Amino acid sequence: MTNTAWRQGQQSKAARLGRAAHLAGGSSGKVVQADQTVALLESVVQPGDRVCLEGNNQKQADFLAQCLAKVNPQHVHDLHLLQSVVALPEHTALFDKGIAKEIDFSFSGPQGARLANLVAAGKIKINAIHTYLELFGRYFVDLTPNVALIAAEAADAQGNLYTGPNTEDTPAIVEAAAFKNGIVIVQVNEIRDTLPRVDVPADWVDFVIHAPRPNYIEPLFTRDPAQISEIQVLMAMMVIKGIYAEYGVKRLNHGIGFDTAAIELLLPTYGEQLGLKGKICTNWALNPHPALIPAIEAGFVQSVHSFGSELGMEKYIAARPDVFFTGNDGSMRSNRAFCQAAGHYACDLFIGSTLQIDTFGNSSTATKGRIAGFGGAPNMGADARGRRHESEAWVKAGREAQANPKHMPRGRKLVVQMVETFREHMAPAFVERLDAWDLAESMGLNNPPVMIFGDDVTHIVTEEGIANLLLCRGEEEREQAIRGVAGYTDVGMARDKKMVEALRARGVIRRAEDLGIARRDATRDLLAAKTVKDLVRASGGLYNPPSRFRNW
Amino acid sequence: MTNTAWRQGQQSKAARLGRAAHLAGGSSGKVVQADQTVALLESVVQPGDRVCLEGNNQKQADFLAQCLAKVNPQHVHDLHLLQSVVALPEHTALFDKGIAKEIDFSFSGPQGARLANLVAAGKIKINAIHTYLELFGRYFVDLTPNVALIAAEAADAQGNLYTGPNTEDTPAIVEAAAFKNGIVIVQVNEIRDTLPRVDVPADWVDFVIHAPRPNYIEPLFTRDPAQISEIQVLMAMMVIKGIYAEYGVKRLNHGIGFDTAAIELLLPTYGEQLGLKGKICTNWALNPHPALIPAIEAGFVQSVHSFGSELGMEKYIAARPDVFFTGNDGSMRSNRAFCQAAGHYACDLFIGSTLQIDTFGNSSTATKGRIAGFGGAPNMGADARGRRHESEAWVKAGREAQANPKHMPRGRKLVVQMVETFREHMAPAFVERLDAWDLAESMGLNNPPVMIFGDDVTHIVTEEGIANLLLCRGEEEREQAIRGVAGYTDVGMARDKKMVEALRARGVIRRAEDLGIARRDATRDLLAAKTVKDLVRASGGLYNPPSRFRNW
């Protein structure tokens, strides 16, 4: 065999770079003018390529997405897209135009309905809905990108990149492409003589484009405290007293939503009253939620490592380097891959919301007509069975789950699902059968797209109480524990009243009153901030909320 | 609150850097002479610090370890060490001298017995034995290093680092320290004007030391084919035909050892005869095992992403960039964190050996008098419950495990334990009770240090056959399936013969003959390489084995 037989990737890369060489200039030979981006993509992207289009919860390589949607489908077609998040109209437009034909992704917020339509029209093949770290893992095994289209804050003349607070997925994507003969193209908001710091070294980057507009960033983790209801305050009180305090939960992750924002805002008030400062919620794997500001200021929080940043939190983060991970330049370094590893292996608890829960405790956000994806929830909301280090919370949860004293003792991650029994438009959160079953059929999957499996869930919290599934022995008990907190939904009404009472007597189900929580105390007065303006005030004016959250 | 109240980490770092400033020079102000290293460490390391001392399966920051062992214990003491691998005498000497007092680690090969002695003497507190990715995760949550002592191949004048093939743990360690006000000190083999590529940017690094000797690298994954026995050939045949072919295992990880080396060496012979090329073992998360060379040359392997490199494989890897992950400079980039994520989430199968297995299928390498640790095995050898993407192997394993058709279908990772029924010195691999129980007591752990839990194991393979635990219904069947392949060990002799025969009739236990494998065919002639010299030949002279593996 000749030497070149093992260098097809290198040869392909060299050919692509050669085709694009006339488009690139600057001292590094990497800079491409923004108006030449479509031509660049047509030169380096080949039919059938695996293309990673950076887009995640927050940061979007939106200019590159727009340009990719403008390439000539006769030359560039049948792409296999790899994406953390399908968020922009351009992402789905790629399928409408035949530029792309299949996708592996993790999350699709606003585009969930369009994705479902594209599936129905046969215009897209969704191979799988991943959790982020799973998708990153595949970038190094069987989904290595031929081309990576990424976004950074700034580049210097050599092509070193500054990704700053929104570093997010960039290092994982670039490493997978750059070290397997992939082409790395970056859109930057500015080209600077010197960078505040280097987040990605220049020799991992092939082309730099100064985009006409700064990349889009979605403030996905901002929740206006004014919209938190008193039912959510009640549920948050139950979580703090009935779970965080009982297990001594110090290291944790919160999902997105008003339910968990309520918990964050109750730490400096209700949590403080219960004497829990320093005993719970000290170390976080969490985006910089504005709702956490009052708890940080009250001294509840020792550290926060973040998947990504949050718009408006930059100055506050930079002023709190003891809490957040920041560089020598003072700004945050987020990193989704490491934060997901931390969330999986170093956290004792994950708590999040969902759209549907069945009587086995399986939950999904994939509902009829919407393919929403799961993001980090399956990774954070699964028992970390490779974990071996002990903590109070992990050991206690494992003990509760151990049915037989002869079994090898093993710790357990606390995985809490927190839902009101009815969501908006009176849709029940509890169902006998998940919509995910139908979706699996329409998507051609063997297994329904479940976000969190019932056997990974340890507690379900509703306004009706806490069901501790760890203490259930056998499937029947589990089912009745779930029905027992499902309230007036059909699932709840079908409960076996006697068995539910027996479970309550054993402490498997605990109502607010069983926890010594009076419903009349669950008022919005307990929230450490009642408005976005309160959050700004709590931050000493450092938090600068996006305009859509300002009404002053 | 004043601004500085939130900047204690920054202030501490500035004070440490100030104390060491007179020791550092060069154009970057970062270069410290080797003979000033002890003085540097005494200036920047403070009592009680969390110190990450880089050392993993392969690369060791051995010069920094030696220097740390020479600091004055009156000034530097009570350190909390964080280490992937405890491998060198200097590592344990730190505890003998009182410089360090507690440790969180993952693996200790040769130092396992000394660790046990230190525990018995009350000179060390072992907080936990982690899996690598778990330890890295904690670096971002509750075990963030104050000081990181790392090793690189070369630095330039600015302090940019080239870690080359042995990048390994370095990016994870440096990121955790550099972005949380930690001090990063690197030993390098040389200081160059220009680097082949940049693996770690200069502004993440505080001090650079040109060490008097190149850092130590252990060729841990090299197995001499001459030492593979015919029993191992037989077991490898059973694995290839009875597991890899049956499930269509394409993406996988192999543990260390002669058992798995035998599988690698049988792919181009026995695997080829069975028509399996392209159908199994195409994509790997694996160190560059020399034993894989014949399979690569035969076209079995599409890609290999590696945790670390392997001594002597550098030129071979550089000549096979279609298979390995290499940079623009041509040399490999390994990355333990990403490869562990890939092994957990993107692989369908993990197979490895162990020292003891109990009748529940729990296994451990922690035996009496030895605290060996587990390395990556708990991460790779656990069902990845956050995984959602489907593959033939994963779906089939999940189907076999599903006991009740009403349960939500879920895929399963294949986790195979491969052992001869007796190890060296006739120690039985199967035991009624793991030594780990006693070890837990002596170490003050709640839970015994289990490497892989029985409920994560799907198959146990011995020379007696394959026990498919997925097909077992209930604990009794599981126990008898395990006893059924435990041969003439006490555990095997205590089997219920009738039940074992029934399990065999159902295909839960399969003997070699049930798989159509004649024991007489299991000869060393099947090995694609019978010696290290054969491996060199297969590589076209590119593989350059360490001298200890050369007898010519």
From TrEMBL, chains A, B:
<dbReference type="InterPro" id="IPR037171">
    <property type="entry name" value="NagB/RpiA_transferase-like"/>
</dbReference>
<dbReference type="InterPro" id="IPR005777">
    <property type="entry name" value="MadA"/>
</dbReference>
<protein>
    <submittedName>
        <fullName>Malonate decarboxylase subunit alpha</fullName>
    </submittedName>
</protein>
<dbReference type="Pfam" id="PF16957">
    <property type="entry name" value="Mal_decarbox_Al"/>
</dbReference>
